[in-house]
Design goal:
Among the domains are: 85 residues; 73 residues, no CATH class. Strands 2-1-3-4-5-6-7-8-9-10-11-12-13-14 form a 14-stranded antiparallel β-sheet. It is of the alpha+beta class. The N and C termini lie far apart (62 Å). 14% of the residues are buried.
Amino acid sequence: MLKDLQTCKVTSLNKMKKQILFILIGLWSLSCRDKLTNYIAYAKFDEYRMSPENQIDRSDPKSNYILVKKGNGLFDIIMPSGKHINFKKKSNFWYYYERSGEDLGTGGFTTREEFVFKDTIYALETNFSQKKEIEWQGLTMKTRGENFYFSLKEYIDDLTPEGKFKGVVSIVKAPGDFDIILKERHSDTLLSYWTNNEKFNLRKKCIYSVVILDNLDEFGQNDYPAKDITPLYLEKHPALGNCDSVVYH
């Protein structure tokens, strides 16, 4: 029992040290952010077209902006929090890799890989065990108007971005089970609806989420969650929260 308690204390202490380290790194990144003269400030980054938009003056304290440095086959983006996002150009797509969710107790972790190709974002998320074995994997295909969520019966385990992208494309061409979320924009509000879609000709208006986006639009959610107003919206539109009562049209 004593040994278990000691192990628990050590684990908790290590976790606390790691959290403090992440906070310090974030604060350091923020303090250095405005000193990076080789980056250009933009109000928005269009990830579908891989293009920064609306260059702004970073000296304005009210501006919520990102810093972008474009190199040869590289986009280095610094988010408002100081987080770096690096897109690298591969053969015919842009690629981004992020590892997160380190669990000091189990040794597991999560990876997110994005493949941007012809105005479409393919996001592959994978949970790994301590032995680096795949425990779960999900694929999302994002367009400006729809998100497609695929259930993967066979994991994509190729080690190269090019090999993984081939696996992603093969799944999209011959999908098994999947869901579609329709997206509608109204000013700064993004409404997402569940649909029923085996043949893509049925539309079922049932609210999945309602969020308020800032000037960074959907790309800002790589840095922080959007403001969720789904409960408030459903109070005003209760029928849209009951999927069984909504008529196909």
